[in-house]
Amino acid sequence: MDDSSKVVKRIAKDGILLALLCVMGMFSIPFGENIKVSLQLYMVMVICLLADSVFDCLIITGSYLALGMFLPIYAGFASGISPTFGFVIGFVLASPVFYFLNKIKLPAVFRMALACLGGLIVVYAAGSVFMMLYLGWDIGKTLMVSVVPYLPFDAIKIALAILTVLAMPALITKKE
């Protein structure tokens, strides 16, 4: 395959992954009074585990952040800056963590789990700091609202992301 075909394939793959993030990220499922679970984080994990380079991760998550400033593609069909905007910033900041931890020489499941846990810590940190500053809350209240209720759901998302990537046909996951 010549270089131009590889570039076209890579751009198409990135475009499809961005489109999936935009579509799946809009929907959220309410659990309780103030807990809404979306598939944004799940898609970011899948994207960064499948990406051909760290730049692809950054381009996709950065494009998602930029598009969401103007289009209602964030969880709950939201757009712009809100108390949870720091988590979207966290997707961009965590992309290199997801990507590079996924390159460590470990069996696939352990490597991907480590990558997802490392990236999740960055997403939680960025989102919590932003929320704390935006709302003027203390760290305890912020963590109890923005992290603790989501831990079980995010553990499930990690498992699903790993299963999704492992189930992908070799044509999609093959690095060229």
Q: What do these coordinates show?
A:
With 176 residues, the chain is mainly α. It has a single domain, classed as Arp2/3 complex 21 kDa subunit ARPC3 (Orthogonal Bundle), CATH 1.10.1760. It has helices at residues 3-26, 40-50, 54-68, 85-101, 108-135, 139-146, 151-167, 170-173; strands at residues 28-30, 36-38. Strands 1-2 form a two-stranded antiparallel sheet. Helix 3 (54-68) runs antiparallel to helix 4 (85-101). The radius of gyration is 16 Å and the shape is globular. The model has no long low-confidence stretch (mean pLDDT 93).
Low-confidence stretches: none
Bin the helical content. over 70%
CATH class equals: Mainly Alpha
CATH architecture field = Orthogonal Bundle
Give the helices and strands, then pairings:
Elements (H helix, E strand, L loop, with lengths): L2 H24 L1 E3 L5 E3 L1 H11 L3 H15 L16 H17 L6 H28 L3 H8 L4 H17 L2 H4 L3
Antiparallel strand pairs: 1-2
List keywords for this structure.
mainly alpha, Arp2/3 complex 21 kDa subunit ARPC3, two-stranded antiparallel ribbon, 176 residues, 8 helices
A few lines on this structure:
The chain is mainly alpha-helical and 176 residues long. It has one domain: Orthogonal Bundle (Arp2/3 complex 21 kDa subunit ARPC3). 70% of the residues lie in helices and 3% in strands.
